[in-house]
Amino acid sequence: MLTVSHRKRPKLCKQLLKRIMGYLTSRSAAPGVSPLLVFLKDQASSHLVEMIIQLSHKALLRDLYKNHLKGHLVDLALHSIANFPIQRLTAASAKHTMFLKLFDELIQGVEAILAAGHMGVIVQLAESCAESGEKQEDMIQCLLRAFHCAEPGTRHVSCLPLFMSLMTYEVYYHSETAEGNIQTEVPLTSICYHGSRLVQSLAKFKERSLLLSSLRTQTPADLLTLASDPAGSHVLQALITTSSDKGRGKILKRLEVPLQGHYGNIKEKKAATT
């Protein structure tokens, strides 16, 4: 009903959203706790809240955050059900200045959210940074710290395989501690769906030099893996299409030798996944 009214009768939809939200937020809850926090953690009602967030106008979104969710975003992002409405809120806020407040709150819990495996929250946070053009440097630096490749600076070139595999530096390079900077060459073997989506979002940032520098350090074998893997090929396409003409030419030139003689196999793999 909400979806149809949003398309056909937007004024009616606006009234419905306001009244439904008014009803949900008026239910009894613990003193000082918004009842909306309870609904967000419920399997059935959380879907309704997701829909409301997706269709809401700026004023309702601002009220939702300011009066009900402010200070609770990280806890909700860590919840097995509530993290999905938080993803919708992060997406919806990208067009508004309130995104800055959401970002500042969520960024405090990035490592905990990663540990919980709720990668959708992290990917959407990066995507909203790309869409809004805001907080991009903060996002990159936070990810470098979270994947343990911020310090020393020589680890920056490892960021691409770490992001794509969603592994920390120590796990990826089989190092027991975060101390030292000896890097063992490890073949690229793991590219996961959310890791691919994360890098695709980061590729839209204004500053992509870290990703491109990391791409340049990949071995021919790794480049072949990247191009032939379904998730990896989307990363490669994103990095190529968002580069300048000169940068695009450099990437394509580096791919010539690794891909030579393998185009048939790559096409077969892509066909098998469609």
TrEMBL record:
The entry's protein name is Nucleolar protein 9-like
Residues in Pumilio repeats: 214-253
Sorted alphabetically, the Gene Ontology cellular component annotations on this record are:
90S preribosome; nucleolus; preribosome, small subunit precursor
Gene3D superfamilies named among the record's database cross-references:
Leucine-rich Repeat Variant
Q: Which Pfam families match?
A: PUF_NOP9
Q: Keywords, A to Z?
A: Repeat
Look up keyword Zinc and say if it applies: no
Cross-referenced PROSITE patterns: PUM
Please report the organism this UniProt entry assigns to the protein.
Notothenia coriiceps
Q: Write out the GO biological process terms.
A: endonucleolytic cleavage in 5'-ETS of tricistronic rRNA transcript (SSU-rRNA, 5.8S rRNA, LSU-rRNA); endonucleolytic cleavage in ITS1 to separate SSU-rRNA from 5.8S rRNA and LSU-rRNA from tricistronic rRNA transcript (SSU-rRNA, 5.8S rRNA, LSU-rRNA); endonucleolytic cleavage to generate mature 5'-end of SSU-rRNA from (SSU-rRNA, 5.8S rRNA, LSU-rRNA); ribosomal small subunit export from nucleus
PANTHER family xref list: NUCLEOLAR PROTEIN 9 (PTHR13102)
Molecular functions per Gene Ontology? RNA binding
